């Protein structure tokens, strides 16, 4: 029998997701659970028919949907943050309007785990990236270091990531004495890295070896998602800004050197090929001094190793 109290708040953020939104909502409504849940929909002033679709579902399920319509566009992270602050559930699950769940027991499985394992702050799972036609592209995470095991802050900083949007976590936002505004202040569009670190700073995350949801990969003109509106250099700039903001927020508690090096190395190669080294340098100036010094030694060394391997394999 269901309790009157809300066990899970499902945060669904929407921005011009008319083409995908019904599939996202239906994937929530198909969940088979023995508890009460709410769906908090944050629409970031969509200009398509997204709001019309949301209102249709609200009329059909008035007790299940809570609507938060923005009067001006605030960006994905502030939209999610406001949804989090409205969440009454013991746990929070998240979904973006262009993605969807494929396991009708996702909520029940994750809640069961958290109810039975009080030492974990959250539980995540494997997600699949699929294209517009639903064809499989890749899965994340795929490392045996964390799949089926637990994610910790140390592993995360070594590059063993899990999906933030796939994670069901204890509702840390119920504690109003804590300030989590860094979630949206770090960046207007990108929140995965910030949310993962906010959670891992408080506890460990179990990563189930099950595929329960789909990330719809989009990188085409005319779409409103992050990969479509921000090019590679802009994304590099965004992530350096996020790392700098997190370093300040955590008061140098964690070493983000690897993150700076990885992102700088990847974009440096791209900028060489595209003859955009000036663009690289403009962003690289914001990288902390320690990471700059290491990068200046690291990248030439890696290049020499690569060339040496090429020579000996000829």
UniProtKB/TrEMBL annotation:
Keywords: Transferase. The keyword Oxidoreductase does not apply. One of its GO terms (molecular function) is hexosyltransferase activity. Residues 9-168 form the Glycosyltransferase 2-like domain. This is Glycosyltransferase involved in cell wall bisynthesis. It comes from the Bacteria. It comes from Psychrobacillus psychrotolerans. Belongs to the glycosyltransferase 2 family. The keyword Transferase applies. Signal peptide: none annotated.
